What does this fold into?
Amino acid sequence: MRKSLLNPILTFGVLIIIIISFSFVGNTIESYFPAQKPEEISSIPIGETVVSGMKVVDSNKIRKVPILYHYSYLNGLFEEKKYLQILNGVLTGSLETPLLKIAGSHISPQGTAQGFEGPGFISVEDEQLVVKPPGTFVWGYKAGYTIGVKKKDGIEIKEGGISGETVKVVSISEINNETIPNDYVDSETVKKWYNNSDEGDVINLDYSLVNFNDGRNMVSPEKIQIFFGNTTLTYMRNYPSGSPVMAYMGPHKEKTIASSAESIGSYPEYGDAVRGYNAMSFSKAWNGTIVPPDSSSHGKLNVYFEGVYDPNATGNYAVHGVCPAARSIRNAIGAAGLPTPSGIKWDHLAIAYGVSPTGDVSVHNNKNYPIKILMWTSGSGAGTVVYTKIVKLS
It folds into this structure.
């Protein structure tokens, strides 16, 4: 009886010793090999933008280890509900390293991004693959991505700038809205550019977002709407290349920190109706402009201004009515403690002849928070009043 009881106990003890030995050997062997790098298991490059639900781990790249040396990994695979891998490990004798050991925050046991809203990005933190959720504000800068290079008999279309990859060559006769990107310029504009440019000249056809404040990678044109929405894409269409673009805003507060109002008055020799129209156009060009910290922005370029006859101006025409609007934004900007906008003077005639009210005027934000410019008008003609508010985003 004693012998029959002793045998199972000895057998069990031997098994325990064997398991502990295998575990010790496994850990010893593993210590001689460098740990698997997080970027080795990522299904997309580090720094790429992702949203919740996207697959971010390539399971096929996860290193497998002998089951005898790492029996404890079974528990991790059970936690990750990877039952197929457990069965396969038992049959083959090797196990996939549990994802919990090499992936961290905002990555599910199944290798998908989870637990956040908005556009996050893939990163490495404490030697683990992680997804970083977006901050309250995410901004980048509009930059040319798809370009057209004038050739003798057509346009060479390249992606990634002048040193990028050639996508195709479009002959002069084939230039239309089907053969070239037309989110920013239509085929007629491209044809005019072609006829008035020299061989080797470049035109921007589509734009990316680069140099994000949180360090994420460039976002190419076809992904901007997917990750940041149509509002961001519309904003980009309105502003010139190089402009800062607030791609994402989470829950935040808005507080008016300065305001100003300026009446345009009557100068019938320059046409009060046209002056009122130009003042309104100025306000439209700047209304809604967001300037992040340590950035500068021009106004919208797709706003029309009407020239007025003026014998003192170059070419005998000037855009009158923009000076009162410029004084309104200048005064509000100054009251908010921001630098005087470039292109605007501290004179009654706030904008010099020949200066574009949008392309040659820019607002710089030297604060540590984003600002938003709100502009609108009331009345018409000589009775037009231009209002400006500077709003702090926090």
